[in-house]
Structures are given as C-alpha cells and as structure tokens.
Amino acid sequence: MMNITEKSGLILEGGGMRGVFTCGVLDCFMDKGIRFPYTIGVSAGACNGLSYISNQRGRAKFSNINLLEKYNYIGIKYLLKKGNIMDFDLLFHTFPNEIIPYDYEKLANCKEHYEMVTTSCRTGKACYYEEKKDANRVIDIVKASSSLPFVCPITYVDGEPMLDGGIADSIPILRARELGYDNNVVVLTRNKGYRKSEKEIKLASLFYKEYPAMQEAIRQRNKIYNEQINMIEELENAGEIVVIRPQKPIEVGRMERNTKKLLALYEEGYQLAESLF
Q1: d(CA 236, CA 65)
Q2: Angle at Cα 178 formed by Cα 173 and Cα 181, nearest 5°?
C-alpha cells in the first residue's frame, strides 16, 4: 500500500514503448487524485511524466497507442530519412502543439516538483532538469532525455550536447533520496529479476569519437543499471519503497508497433496501480 507524505517521490523508468505500462499506472493515479511532491522521469518516463504533471489523463496513452496506430512513427524509414528511429518532429512538435496540445499553463502553475534526466555527452554524467516556464526548453529537455544512443541524433539543452537520460541514470532513486524524498514509489517497465547483459558495447567508440566520456558512460550503462536494480530489490524487500512493475511476461519491445500488445500492457499498469488502493 502507498502512503503519500511530504517526503514521497515517484520515479519513472524509461524503456521505449514499454512505457505504456507507466501510462496505465499514471492514468490510474490521476483517476484517484494521487499526486506526489516530487516526480522524476527518464526517457519514455520523462515523456509520460509530463502528461501526469499537467494532469492530462489519457494523453500519454493516446500518444503511445492511438498516434502510433495512425502515424506509425517508429521505424527504419525514419532512421534512413532523418537519422532518427522515431519521428521527433511529430512527437515533440506537431503532437504537443496541434494534436493534443500540452497544457504548459498547468505545468507552470504546478506546485509539485518534476525533474527530467538527460546524459551529458561532454561529461557522461546525468543532468537533472526542472523547467516549468519555458515551453521550448521543456521540449529540448524531454527530447534529449528520449534520444536513444546510436538510433537518435544528439540533442542540445542550453547549447550542451545531450543523449538519453537512461545512459547515466536509468532509475534515479538515489537522486530522489539525495533531495530528501525517502518514501518512494518506483515504476519499472521490466519484470522482476531482469538484468542487462554486461558484455562490452563496442559501437560507442564508432559513434561518439569526440565524446570519450559518453563512450565510457555507454560502456558502463548496463553494469550501473544492474546495480540500481539490485539496490531497488533490496529496498523493496526491506519495505522501504513500493515498486510497480509488470507481472506478466513482457511481450512488448522497446520499439514495439503492435498496438494490441501495447494496450494490454497499458491495462496491466492501470490494474496493478489500482490494486494498491
């Protein structure tokens, strides 16, 4: 059971299209009127968290399922045409400005804190941004947080080169605790027991020659992720955090385009969140 206090934080993992699980969790929270003093999102978690912070119920689901079905915005054709596996123009400009406009006024007036995580190409370290006033900067940050290595171009925030926040800090529970939020709910997009392979990732030196710190961050990513999961499971076993994760075997890939699978994962997220009340 969740007990929301002034020290409660909500941590949203990424995972590409597996983030529809998080959409379900967040829609349930919005239906129940559940707000956290502090929320932090990474990559897909940052995207979905923005709609939660502005209290736009169903918006993230529409983006991940309905829009995907209509526009098919993921695929090799975008990588070949635009150097990006996803149609970022649609996702970060047309969608928030025209299709279902993002409520920047609600974001600006939101009393809760919301951070998004990126990874600096220069330092290889995680950067944590809270932006509520400047709509263009909000988009720069969430776009950078979602820019997967190798298949998305480098994105700039305040002129600094950035990539996916999950490279340096996939599950930023330590960030939440450092800020004083020690009563946390963590939303994961993988089944319990999942660990990443720690084989060396050799592509980094080919793609990011001018950013040696980013090369090293990519090489260390899976090891750090596994360490974070180990810590989360220890905290969970000790009763110090609540973890919401898929219980059924995951059938959704990072770049999944099967909307039936996506809808099923969304519904599982909603139901598991509802079971906490």
Answers
A1: 31
A2: 70
- Which CA distances in Å does 211 have to 84, 92, 145, 183? 19, 26, 17, 37
User: Strands 8-12 and 113-120: what pairing?
Assistant: unpaired
User: Which tokens go with 69?
Assistant: 């079905």
As given in the structure block, the two tokens for residue 256 are 């999944």
Burial (Cβ within 10 Å: 0-12, 13-18, ≥19) of residue 264: middle
Torsion on CA atoms 25, 50, 57, 112, rounded to nearest 10: 90
Burial tier of 259 (Cβ tally within 10 Å: 0-12, 13-18, 19+)? middle
Place of tokens 């084989």: 199
Radius of gyration (C-alpha) of the chain in whole angstroms: 17
* Tens digit of each residue's pLDDT, the chain (277 residues): 678 999 999 999 999 999 999 999 999 999 999 999 999 999 999 999 999 999 999 999 999 999 999 999 999 989 988 899 999 999 999 999 999 999 999 999 999 999 999 999 999 999 999 999 999 999 999 999 999 999 999 999 999 999 999 999 999 999 999 999 999 999 999 999 999 998 877 777 788 999 999 999 999 999 999 999 999 999 999 999 999 999 999 999 888 889 999 999 999 999 999 999 8
Chain centroid offset of residue 17 CA: 10
CA 13, 18, 21, 23 torsion-angle sign: positive
- CB 155 within 8 Å of CB 214: no
**Would you say 142 and 51 are in contact if contact means Cβ atoms under 8 Å apart?**
no
